[in-house]
Structure formats: C-alpha cells, structure tokens
Amino acid sequence: MNISIARLQKKIDALKEGAQKELQVLEAQLLDKKRKSLIVCQRCRKRSPVYSWIFIQGFRHAPPTGYRGGDYWNRSKVEDCHIVCHKCGNENRIFTHPQKDKILTITGGVHDKLELFAEVEERYEDN
C-alpha cells in the first residue's frame, strides 16, 4: 500500500474536520440539556429550567498588601454564588442548595454563565 504523503494528509484533515463538526454538535446538545435541567427553589418549591434563573456572580475584594499585592477583585467559586428564582424572587445560595452537586455539574466547564442562565448579575463585596 503506497499512499502519498499528500493523500495521507488529506485523509487526516478530512477526519479532523468531521470530528470537529461532530464535537460542535455534541457540545450544543450538552449545553441545551444543561439549560433545560430543572432546579427547585428552596422557598416556593417550584421547579424551573436553568435558563429561567438569574445567576449572581460574587466578587471578593483583595485589599492592598505591601508594595505590589492586593487591591483587586477575585471571582467567587460557583458554590459561593447565588441563583434567583424567577417565580418568587428568592435568592438561593448554591452552597446550601439541596441540588448543589447538580448545579455544580451543570455550570462546570461553562465560563460564560449567560450561556446557561437568563441573566447574570455581579455582586462586589468587601471582606
């Protein structure tokens, strides 16, 4: 079997392109499934899909320390953030939420929370 370098490269490129398209389809399906996952409100007990909730991203201030350190904002971990029920307006802390593990799985790997939630609010808190 004597295949030229150019033909081998063409086959490899075609496989990569096909795999890339399949990967994009799977990623879109995963994101859709995450957005449609149901979360229960701790107050009204109603279940709503993730895409209807508001995500509150917390930021903590790092005060100045010494010559060059500090005086910046750190993004809080997801479990230290909140989600707001669109039905009753209750702010649910993710850390104490009974579906905490599910919420962390849903948000894992998604840097831009606007891909999942109806809205993302930022909350800046001094330590």
Can you describe what's shown?
The protein has two helices and seven strands. It is flat and about 70 Å long. Strand 5 and strand 6 form a beta hairpin. The model has no long low-confidence stretch (mean pLDDT 93). It folds into two domains: 1-36; 37-125, no CATH class. The N and C termini lie far apart (69 Å). By secondary structure, the chain is an alpha+beta fold. It is 31% helix and 25% strand. It has helices at 5-36, 100-107; strands at residues 38-40, 47-49, 54-62, 72-75, 82-84, 91-93, 119-125. The strands form two sheets. Strands 3, 4, 5, 6 and 7 form a five-stranded mixed sheet that branches. A two-stranded antiparallel ribbon has the order 1-2.
Topology at a glance:
Layout: H1 5-36, E1 38-40, E2 47-49, E3 54-62, E4 72-75, E5 82-84, E6 91-93, H2 100-107, E7 119-125
Parallel strand pairs: 3-7
Antiparallel strand pairs: 1-2, 3-4, 3-5, 5-6
| Beta content | 25-35%
Beginning-to-end CA distance, first to last residue: 69 Å
Percent of residues in helices comes to 25-40%
Would you identify the regions where 5 or more consecutive residues have pLDDT less than 50?
A: none
Query: SS-based structural class?
Result: alpha+beta
Order of helices and strands: HEEEEEEHE
The main pleated sheet reads as: 5 strands, mixed
Count of beta strands = 7
Give the overall shape: flat
Labels describing this entry:
127 residues; alpha+beta; 5-stranded mixed β-sheet; flat
Give a nutshell description of this structure.
With 127 residues, the protein is an alpha+beta fold.
